[in-house]
C-alpha cells in the first residue's frame, strides 16, 4: 500500500483513507492507496497524466465511490474541481452567495466583499460570471473556500490560470488555513512551495 503518514502533530486525524482502489470505465486506475490527513498538513498528490489524482480527490470528497477500501472523514470537506462550479447566468456576488449557501450559512455582506477585494474582484460584485476570464473564475471559486468553514480542502489544480500575484495569495491563504487547524490535499502540475509540504506519488499505485 502507498502510504503518507502525516505530521507528528498530536491533533486527531481529519481524514483517513485505507487501501483505496479506484476503477474508471471498467479499468483499474490505482489500488492500495492509504493516507492520513492531520490538522495543519498539506499534501501534494503527484503522478503522470491519467495516474488518478483527480479520481482520488473525488473519492476523498465523497463525489464518487471507491472500488475498494475505506475513507473516514472527521471534519467537513470542501472540493474545488476543474470546472469551478460557477453558474454563467449569475453575477459575481450572486454566484458567491449561491456557492456558500450550498455548504453553510451565507456570510455577511461585509465579509463577502472583503474576500472579493482580497482576490481582486472587489469591484466586480455585479459583473456577469460568463464574462470573467479563466483566472478570475478560479479566484471566485477560491473565494468560496475562504468564506466557508470546511477544515479539509481538496483542491484540483488550484494554481491553474492564476497569475503570479494570485499564486502567492493562494499560498498565503493555504498557510492561514493550515495554521487555523485546517488541512489541504492538492494536485498541481506546477511546482508547489509550501512549508512542510508532503507528497504522495500515485505513479507507484497505478495498476
Ligand atoms: N469519465 C471517465 N470515464 C472513464 N474513464 C475516465 C473518466 N475520467 C477519467 N478516466 C480515466 O481515469 C484515469 C484517471 O484519470 P484522472 O483524471 O483521475 O487522472 P489525473 O492523474 O488527474 O490526470 P491529469 O494529470 O491528466 O489531470 C485515466 O486513465 C482516465 O482515462
What report would you give on this structure?
- This protein has 207 residues and is an alpha/beta fold.
- 29% of the residues lie in helices and 27% in strands.
- The chain is built from 5 helices and 9 strands; from the N terminus they run E-E-E-E-H-E-E-H-H-H-E-H-E-E.
- The strands form 2 sheets. Strands 6-7-8-4-9 form a 5-stranded parallel sheet, with helices on both faces. Strands 1-3-2-5 form a 4-stranded mixed sheet, with helices on one face.
- Helix 3 (109-118) crosses helix 4 (134-147).
- The termini are close together.
- Residues 5-10 have low confidence and may be disordered.
- Bound molecules: adenosine-5'-triphosphate.
- Keywords: ATP-binding, Cell membrane, Cytochrome c-type biogenesis, Membrane, Nucleotide-binding, Translocase, Transport.
- GO terms for molecular function: ATP binding; ATP hydrolysis activity; transmembrane transporter activity.
